[in-house]
Amino acid sequence: MLTDSFQRTIKYLRVSITDRCNLRCSYCRPEKCGNTSSNFEHIQHNEIMTYEELLRLASIFARLGVEKIRVTGGEPLVRKNVPEFVGDLLSIKGISDVSLTTNGVLLQDYAEALKAKGLKRINISLDSLVPDKFSKITGRNEFSRVWKGIQKVIELGLDPVKINVVAMRGINDDEFFDFATLTLELPVHVRFIEFMPMAFTTGDSARNRILSSEIIEKIESQWVLEPIPKAPSSGPAECFKIKNAPGTIGFISPISRHFCGECNRMRITAAGSLKPCLLSHDEIDIKAALRSGADDDYLENLIYSAVAIKWKRHEIENGMSPDGGGGGIMFRIGG
Ligand code: SAM
Q: For residue 230, is it within any domain?
């Protein structure tokens, strides 16, 4: 069993399979930083973890008690053979649940194959329901493909279908009612997420942050929100339902109500580092050990070392500057 210094047991692994993305969200992987092209170098292909390497690590994590895995990126669906990888993860003894976080652009193309390989649930990131605004935020005119992807996974019966919305003042704060209305019309689970200070968070985007309490207040001016009791290991969202709605509304509040005390996660980055916390700079390079022929005992010890350095809680308010000195590069770590 993997237990950290604060008695938290690790049951959940997030695996980033690529740093590449087909969107250019202004706050995550912007096309430009200021007036200059952001010109992010992609991680070289041979530096990205192979599926075989990830499956070997996932098997070791499973032996140590991990039960759930989320596949993420970058945009995971830009990598080949994701459905097969999902199926292979699900065939590991002890892994009972594999999910995927995607921007949805390629979802229509892969939804059926993903379902056939055993994917049951999915998170789709969508910060606006207005096509023009979507294009402005993401730098790409892809709203209709994302929307068709969402319809497709609902049609196929994936459950839950979660829609992740990063709340940003002056950008999508006029759409909170529309996202809430969506839960009355469709069996979708909207999750508003507080904006975190990551590597490319500019002063502007940090100032644009909206705390969950403000969104709750706004939605409650229109509807009664019935709280949904939290199931064990149901994730960090506080969830509500509008009466008779097929969907739910949740709030993930890493800033105003951090959930580090219940953190049960470890991450593997696209370049093969173990990352104990999204919002700390600590990483342990496990790819180097893997590629130099380390046996499972050695890899297991590296995993224990990474778990041992998990922070008690993130330190956003103590020195992680919201003006850029914050967490790492989201699209490389995997959100
Ligand atoms: N491409 C996939 C997607 O769009 O869902 C997976 C990777 S993306 C980095 C995962 C999530 O991180 C997205 O929902 C994105 O909006 C969110 N994200 C990126 N930067 C963020 C930040 N600074 N604060 C909060 N969420 C952020």
A: yes
pLDDT digits (tens, 9 = 90+) for 71-93: 999 999 999 999 999 999 999 99
Q: Give the integer Cα–Cα distance in Å for 240 and 46.
A: 44
pLDDT digits (tens, 9 = 90+) for 212-241: 999 999 999 999 999 999 887 678 899 999
Residue 52 covered by a domain: yes
How close is the Cα of 133 to the center of ligand 1, in Å?
17
Closest ligand 1 atom, CA of 101? 5
4 within domain boundaries = no
| Collapsed DSSP state (helix, strand, coil) of residue 190 | strand
pLDDT grade for 323, boundaries at 50, 70 and 90: very low
Smallest Cα–Cα separation from 274: which of 294, 300, 242, 239? 300
Strands 238-242 and 248-252: antiparallel
Q: Whose CA is nearest to atom 12 of ligand 1?
A: 335
Beta partners for 99?
Answer: 70, 121
Range of the domain at 316: 12-333
CA pair distance 194, 317, nearest whole angstrom: 14
Strand 161-166 relative to strand 188-193, pairing:
parallel
CA-closest residue to ligand 1 atom 17: 335
Per-residue pLDDT tens over the stretch 271-306: 999 999 887 788 999 999 999 999 999 999 999 999
Of 124, 112, 10, residue with least CA distance to 76: 124
Ligand 1 lining (C-beta closer than 6 Å): 21, 27-28, 72-73, 75, 101-103, 125, 164, 166, 193, 195-196, 198, 201, 330-331, 335
Q: What percent of the chain is modeled with pLDDT above 70?
A: 91
Domain assignment present for residue 119? The answer is yes
Number of domains in the chain: 1
Q: Look up residue 24 and give its two tokens.
A: 């250019």
Query: What tokens appear for 300 in the block?
Result: 């297991």
CATH number, residue 232: 3.20.20.70
Nearest CA to ligand 1 atom 13: 125
